[in-house]
Request: fold
Amino acid sequence: MVQSGIVGMGIDPVSASYSYQSFTIPPKTQRLTGTLFWFGGPTRDLDFTLLDSDSNAVGSSASTANPEVITVSNLPAGTYIWRVLAFTNPDTAHYTITTDYCVDATMLSADPRRELDFAMALAPNPCHVLAAITFALPQSGHASLKLYDVSGRLIRTLQDGPLAAGRHVRVWDRSTNGGAIAPGGVYFARLESAGRALSRKLVMVR
Reply:
């Protein structure tokens, strides 16, 4: 499961900004992993906390790393909340949270009755400088993720090699394969793996 959001400015120690994302943990979950990735604006640091339905903290990550990762085990089924905190953030920041469940020793995306789907999502879209492309592979193998302009010309290769099954994130910083800065306009991200392909439109704002 992938959730996206925006957190506002924060100035330590004067003020902090919070953003929240709710979700449901299914029964018989053995382990949960949440990965917070942020981009856009001159962001310095975001902190990451998992809250239960009574707003009690049951997991946290407050390093200077990007992404921040929280892993917790044996939580009861129910509604939980991801809290994103900005306190040294001079501008708004876009973020994505990827949530994975381990149910009966099998990693699943959002529904424990289903296998991980072949999927891809882009955020933010439209974007100004950075775009995060999150994608899921049901099986290990060769995967390619490439960006094309509207004429079909290859602009940037973000992935072209073996990858394990699971969720992955690649970031496009507007640079081309030749090292130039791509102009504003419409682009297409194309993901290929195991004989399957997905394309998504991405708008880069000037």
Notes: The first strand starts at residue 2 and ends at 7. The radius of gyration is 18 Å. DSSP finds no helices and 18 strands in the chain.
